[in-house]
Structure formats: C-alpha cells, structure tokens
Design a protein that fits this description.
Blueprint (H helix, E strand, L loop, with lengths): L30 H11 L23 H13 L2
Helix pairs in contact: 1-2
Length: about 80
C-alpha cells in the first residue's frame, strides 16, 4: 500500500495489564485467524482497495482498508 496514515490499533502482541494479550483469547482453530491470513496475502492496492483521500488532511485519518475487509468478511461468515 502507499504511505498513507491509517487509524491503527494496538498490536495484538503488545503485553498490557488487562487483557494480557488479544492473541491469548483467540483459539488456534478460530476462523478469524484464517480471515487474517487471507487478507494479509492479498495485494489490496492492486485489487482496488485504496481510499479516495482525506480531503486535504482535514479530519480524522481513514481506517485501514485491510481492517475493514477483515471486519466485513468476519461479519459475512457469522451472519
């Protein structure tokens, strides 16, 4: 992807007080792991998952298209 700034969360490997790690709460066989691996293997820029811009820098940065695709796929598989 390009050098655009997207909204990002904390790394799932980051150790914190509570909860210990998000990875500790997701089972090894949970389908979300397959969704994450699938989206990570895609070239989203080539597939047209860019964004239209942030309006000249005004407002909040956009969400990462990879994160939005993961949420969409998770919701679609769990409807």
């Amino acid at each position: 992807m390009t050098n655009r700034m997207f909204k990002t969360g904390v790394s799932r490997d980051q150790v914190s007080l509570l909860p210990a790690r998000v990875e500790d709460y997701v089972g090894r066989e949970n389908p979300v792991r397959a969704i994450e691996a699938f989206v990570a293997a895609l070239d989203l820029e080539r597939l047209g998952f860019g964004h239209a811009g942030s309006g000249g820098g005004a407002g909040q940065p956009p969400y990462d298209p990879a994160d939005l695709l993961k949420l969409y796929l998770y919701g679609y598989t769990n409807r």
